[in-house]
From TrEMBL:
Residues 236-471 form the CN hydrolase domain. It is an enzyme of class 2 (transferase). The chain crosses the membrane at residues 20-50, 62-84, 96-120, 132-155, 167-192, 204-223, 478-498. It is a multi-pass membrane protein. The gene is lnt. Keywords: Acyltransferase, Cell membrane, Membrane, Transferase, Transmembrane, Transmembrane helix. Its EC number is 2.3.1.269. It comes from Aromatoleum evansii (Azoarcus evansii). Pathway: Protein modification; lipoprotein biosynthesis (N-acyl transfer). Gene3D superfamilies: Carbon-nitrogen hydrolase. This is Apolipoprotein N-acyltransferase. The keyword Transmembrane applies. Belongs to the CN hydrolase family. Apolipoprotein N-acyltransferase subfamily.
Amino acid sequence: MTHPVQDSGAAPAGGRGRGLLAALLAGGTSVLAFAPFGIFPLAVLSLAVLAGLAARQTRARAGFALGFAWGLGAFLAGVSWLYVALNRYGGMPMPLAALAILLFCAYLALFPAAVGALFVRFGRGGAWRRALLFAGLWMGSELLRGWLFTGFPWLAAGYSQTPPSPLAGFFPVLGVYGVGGLVAFLAALVALTRWRSARPAAEALAAILVLSGAGFGLGRIAWTSPVGEPLEVVLIQTNIEQSLKWRPELLSDWLESNARLVRENPADLVVLPETTLPLLADRLPDGYLEELAAPVAARGGDVVFGVFLRDARGAIYNAALSLGASPSQSYAKQHLVPFGEYSPPLFGWFYDLVDIPMSDQTRGAPDQPPLRLGAQRVAINICYEDLFGRELIRSLPEATLMLNLSNLAWYGDSFAQPQHLQIARVRAMETGRPMLRSTNTGMTALVQPDGRVAEVLPAFMQGVLSVSVQGYEGLTPYARWGDFAALLLGVLALAVAGRLRRDGHARRGI
């Protein structure tokens, strides 16, 4: 093991500035590891820069600053497309929208900042100990970011490791947070190993090869198995411009467009995207729902579409409704988007600055069963919900298929569409189920249980994706354990790091 020498004092101001700039640029570069670029080794290299810079510090506040700079670069580069929703479609003035995004990214940057501070505070010892410490802290920070204030786990490091990354085989076992911890461990090991010394270099290289080989081997395991007959599915991408969707004078055009697309493309299952009917179901024209379902029901199939439902109490739900040969069923979105679909306490003033339709919604029940459509059990998730793997596995083992309805038109032509598809790939691997996606502007796709995108429509065009999809049964380890496995792995990494530190003190007589 190596024992890097700690700096004896504070770095000169110029050195601090260069370090912060390097961390900022490394964070921004990390976005290239995710879709649409998919240069997955950059996730390791980017975090290696952060770990290497932090390892040279002696004060926790310096580590905090480096982690904050890294996080600010990563989130400004990776999720600044949120600005489009606030400014272009929400009507928020440009300076306020830019400030809101900066503050939001600064909040997200606090999580890697905490990692940097704690890593410096407790990061003494050899490369292996410090790599375990960095990995455990990173897993903990991402788990917390995915939970606190309802969670925002977008750009969790693990998402960058979809196939062909050799670490992709760990998704069905450890989930996205566990894979992110492996990325952080490798990053710190790369940064802190003395590569010019034969033994440390050989040990680090062996660890990289073992983890890569284990991931490759796990990826060859079929955790779930096909069940039933294949289903002929039509996924419709309506491509309705967000600025036009809510204009009352165009409502009849949108209703006719949806009905026509279903009429021209009947199948066993026809799917329209989230809120494809931009009004409450009880305000639809008389006979419209019967017209929508008739061509699919005539061939013994069902249509599933996004619409707003209202219950007897007047509560409004962002929902999916099924009609056709099977009994009519519905699913109400459980995990709502703060500020977009509901107002957190004390933030009512936010809606004085923006104009977001249907922004006072109610959460659906957490224990909604899959929809029984023919011989399949289809678990619905709506848009943002598929960021939360621990919530999607509630439908297992009953569900044989996963179906996501989305509308990312709010974010324009941005990284949001390919990044969201990459998230769906991870959910498919975690659950061992195909993930069907019907979206308004992209990316409409079929993702297989191994994370492979079987077919996908180009974004920002109206189109129809006809696929034959096989249902699956059985449980992956992640479906059994959820995020507990990643949490346990993180705690174990910290415990081993702590033990190695105590052993090192004992050997030195401390």
